[in-house]
């Protein structure tokens, strides 16, 4: 069984990698110039280029909050029972 310290280090590394991947997706989304938008036929306005990164960022924030808050709440509940 791994120690709690090793598990925390692994979780921090994975969270950092997840944040970097979200940042990369956002950069790629906003890096598309007008030339790419001109190739798409104008069939109506779409907020999709801004909606997808917003959803990804929201999911990442929720996942990070859960990863931080759930252990704290469990520890608090465990301390309250003692």
What report would you give on this structure?
With 82 residues, this protein is mostly helical. The protein has one domain (4-81). It has helices at residues 4-30, 34-39, 48-81. α1 runs antiparallel to α3 (48-81).
Feature tags:
mainly alpha
The proportion of residues in beta strands is: under 5%
Mean pLDDT comes to: 79
**N-to-C SSE string, H for helix and E for strand:** HHH
Shape: elongated
Total strand count, please? 0
Which structural class is indicated by helix and strand composition?
Answer: mainly alpha
Helical stretch count?
A: 3
Helix % is over 70%
Count of structural domains: 1
**Describe the biggest sheet?**
none
Uncertain runs with pLDDT below 50, 5 residues or more? Answer: none
Rounded radius of gyration (Å): 20 Å
Q: Report how far the terminal alpha carbons are from each other.
A: 25 Å
Protein topology:
Layout: H1 4-30, H2 34-39, H3 48-81
In short:
With 82 residues, this protein is mainly alpha-helical. It has helices at residues 4-30, 34-39, 48-81.
